[in-house]
Amino acid sequence: MKGRQRETVKGIRALLAGEKRTIARIISAVESEDSEEILEHIFPHSGSAYHVGITGPPGAGKSTLVSAIAKRLLGKRKKVGIIAVDPSSPFSGGALLGDRVRMTDLALDENVFIRSMASRGSLGGLAQATKDVALVLDAAGMDYILIETIGVGQVELDIAQVCDTTVVVLVPESGDSIQAMKAGLLEIADIMVVNKGDREGCERLLTELKFAFEMREQKVGWDYPILKTTATEDEGVEELVVAIESHASYLSKTGRLEDERKKKLLLRIHELIEKRIRFHLKENIMPERDIIKLLDKMYERKLNPYRIAGQIARRIIRLADRRFV
Amino acid sequence: MKGRQRETVKGIRALLAGEKRTIARIISAVESEDSEEILEHIFPHSGSAYHVGITGPPGAGKSTLVSAIAKRLLGKRKKVGIIAVDPSSPFSGGALLGDRVRMTDLALDENVFIRSMASRGSLGGLAQATKDVALVLDAAGMDYILIETIGVGQVELDIAQVCDTTVVVLVPESGDSIQAMKAGLLEIADIMVVNKGDREGCERLLTELKFAFEMREQKVGWDYPILKTTATEDEGVEELVVAIESHASYLSKTGRLEDERKKKLLLRIHELIEKRIRFHLKENIMPERDIIKLLDKMYERKLNPYRIAGQIARRIIRLADRRFV
Fold it and tell me: Can you tell me the distance from the alpha carbon of A81 to that of A72, in angstroms, rounded to the nearest whole number?
């Protein structure tokens, strides 16, 4: 046990030094089941990385944009972590060969660390795992963590909660803006980007977005930027990086950065408690051998899962309340 | 209270009779916070609907296929419930006008009930809400419930757990098959469909899929059908309906239908317990006013959320164990 602790301390030191192989090893460890002890050691060293979410529909060119942003940040002597949650991202190996070669180029830079997340496991698992990986990269000394997600579902809404700034990327193709609004993307956007700005329909989409943001309740002091980029040509990327920096400075000046990060910590505690209780429920409260009879009766509609779950939950809560309230 | 119970009983009767306005009203009630009492009343009347998931990438023509399947089933005098979880589905109002007009046509049939789910709320909320809505439609006497999801994330993997048969729809466009494999779609498929079968690349995709399924571990007795459809022309749809019926009969004969449905009930109980505990945690265990000091210290990295969450969870579990183990 002491040997293991020494091992952990050594690992943490190498992590803080930003050693790529250690980062990769610790991320793999964190993705395995019982990772909270490691995360507990890592947490005190986190808190300095700025988290940027880049989300949008498939084919919006998010990865190319992420690469372009990363290169600009590297030029400013920043360390950049990239997490690809999008299964179609070339970072996660899901796109055409040409894209992947470009990414490999970036991955060789010693100030970049790229990690792709597999979209497997139980619901909630992916978003939580992304937060854990971001924590590791934060402690490893990254100045920026760029998190690329495919913006069509709920996972990204949940991942947006870990980001300080969320950039939503659209393309001029028809329907995108309507679908984006439906998916709640505009509500989570701090910065809007219309990528592939050389394509037809770009100006119309920009106008639509301006209109949509005028309708939206404004946060005091933040004027949502709506930018045009052509990431493949590196056009408009510097303006985007400036907009991200402006948003960071706005959050910092108004005290919102601290407030929002505290809210995220509260959410994280809830998630962690739930995760442990969920694990315990599956392992102990109702092992399959005990429940077969119950399931038979439920299948025959003689017993009611809603009632049984309610009873068990109420008992757990009642017992817990005696201690905590 | 007695009046309310009478009201509920009356509502359940109208629901069982399949009254469209009652179905809509009860679904709205179920989507609100405290729905478990209603679901408890509905559950005993469920269990006869056959659940079919239709999933695939955006633009695969899932909605057109769902419409075509629904029309065939209506022709066989079946009652059909449709749940659209895909934000780009015309059922949920997210597609082009032409599609929507076609859907409206279907919606007017007295043996069809269509419901679209908003992709909002907390993670896990959407998949759970979909299961609740399916339960209502089941009790309302639907023979088939068709659930359309956009197959790129985890929500659909979770929704697949409510379906007896999962149909994965792809189109011949390049990259789709690779992306589908990445997203774990092939693993949840009982039936594969290549839609827009008149397009270039269709035969190549069919060959790829056949190869992929040969690699995959087979369920004894089920030969995964790989079908070609052109939903807009109603081509291949009858074959698809026959494949769904064959899968249903395979599950039923081998006892797998019962086994799988019991597993789903077990999962549902776990989810319901977690949901209640989650709700309770947010409301009672750590109200914001009590936790502000804690959050301040965590923000300063003097306290550790992983340790705190672990402590609270362990105490809850220890108390719970005295009663249950």
Answer: 13
Q: Which residue of B has its CA nearest to A116?
A: B182
Q: Which two tokens stand for residue B253?
A: 């004969």
Cβ pair B85, B126 in contact under 8 A: yes
Is A98 part of a structural domain of the chain? yes
Q: Residue A84 corresponds to which tokens in the numbers above?
A: 């690809």
Tell me: do A271 and A170 sit in the same domain.
Answer: no
CB A318 within 8 A of CB B323: no
Report whether B247 contacts B191 (CB < 8 A). yes
Q: Could you identify the residue written with the tokens 């000394």?
A: A141
Q: Does residue B70 sit in the same domain as residue B214?
A: yes
A301/A166 same-domain check: no
pLDDT in tens, B89-98: 777 766 666 6
- Residue B20: inside a domain: no
Residue A107 and residue A226 in one domain: yes
A164 plus A279 within the same structural domain: no
Mutate to test the interface with A, among B41, B170, B251, B277 (most CBs of A within 10 A): B277
CATH code, B119: 3.40.50.300
pLDDT (tens digit, 9 = 90+) per residue, A72-105? 999 999 999 999 887 667 777 666 666 666 677 7
Higher-pLDDT residue of A129 and A154 is A129
Q: Do B98 and B202 have their domain in common?
A: yes
- Angle of the A20-31 helix axis to the A2-16 helix axis, nearest 10: 130
Has residue B36 been placed in a domain? no
Q: Tell me which DSSP letter residue A142 carries.
A: -
B112: left (phi over 0), alpha (psi -120 to 50) or beta: beta
Residues A169 and A198 in one domain: yes
Whether A26 is covered by a domain: the verdict is no
Residue pair A128/A36 in contact (Cβ under 8 Å)? The answer is no
**Region A310-320: what's the mean pLDDT?**
68
Mutate to test the interface with B, among A274, A289, A314 (most CBs of B within 10 A): A274
Question: Which of B273, B265, B241, B253 minimizes the C-alpha distance to B47?
Answer: B265
**Residues in chain B closer than 8 A to A93 (CB atoms):** 182
Confidence at residue A58, expressed as pLDDT on a 0 to 100 scale:
73
- What is the number of structural domains in chain B? 2
- Six-digit token pair at A93? 């190996």
Range of the domain at B147: 47-254
Strand A144-150 to strand A80-84: parallel, antiparallel, or no bridges (unpaired)?
parallel
Average pLDDT for residues B146-162, to the nearest whole number?
Answer: 74
